[in-house]
Amino acid sequence: MTIHQIECFLEAARTLNFTEAANHLYISQQGLSRQIASLEKELELRLFDRTTRDVRLTRSGELLLWRWKDIPKEIYDSVDMAREEGERAKRRINLSVVGMSGIIEMAGNILADYMAFDPEVEFEINEFTNIKDITNGNPDLMMTVTFTPSYEQLKEKCGLMVIKKLPLYYVMSKKNPLAQKEDVVMEDFKGETMLCLFKNFFAGAELRLFELIAKQEHVLQKARYYENVNSLELAIIANEGIHIGFKEFYHNYGERLVMHPMPNSRNQAYASVIIVWRKENEKRLESFIKFLKNNYN
């Protein structure tokens, strides 16, 4: 059964005149008759009663007219929708953002600015936990945060840009004795446990930062990992250890947490918010990348 057969049947059923129906479809009457005869043979149903004077639908024909009357329109409308979606997909940019409230909000503001610049573009945003996902071929772009130059390994296959620098802090509970100190240094944390978000976060940047501190400063000797931001934050509030992070990361900053500049108030260290893209997508993303360079680089 074809859409053309259905259209021939529906037009003949509406007009009850094969000549008129054939004219409406821009085919010959013989062609129309062949299509309907073929349809009746395939369905093993008689759809029309034809005499020399008139044409009438059988009960089976009436039933099919009732159930099939909107089929051609539905098909053509759905094809138009699919084509429109295909065109939208060509313009759509898939962005994966590290699952942190402050960074997601920053990404949203960047995308809103770009959509005001280019209303035709469409974004699809997903959260991720591991920067290595960029090599899996799923997102067009990835926005994340790194404490160390851990993204250098990506430069062979990816382009990247630093969007913003975020000051780093030692983060601790107000219950920690060091919370009331005006200025702290690394040595003050001797014996403390470093609290980290799961090992794959930031491509393991927290783990490398911990190893760097433990090796060079001989201060932080223990690390504990948490599977999500909320668990980590609760552990900090409960004074189970310290965390190294930035203000945008936390929900309860200013209420239960205290932050001291890292490594000290005179020499602030920074984390980098970066956007990464695969080099093979660079041409398609050219306009967006140029916008980023002009406005955020």
From TrEMBL:
One GO MF term: DNA-binding transcription factor activity
All residue ranges annotated as the HTH lysR-type domain in the record: 1-58
Cited Pfam families: HTH_1, LysR_substrate
Similarity-based family: Belongs to the LysR transcriptional regulatory family.
Coiled-coil intervals, chain numbering: none
Protein name according to UniProt: HTH lysR-type domain-containing protein
Cellular-component GO terms for this entry: protein-DNA complex
Keyword terms, alphabetized: DNA-binding, Transcription, Transcription regulation
Protein's UniProt keywords contain Transcription regulation: yes
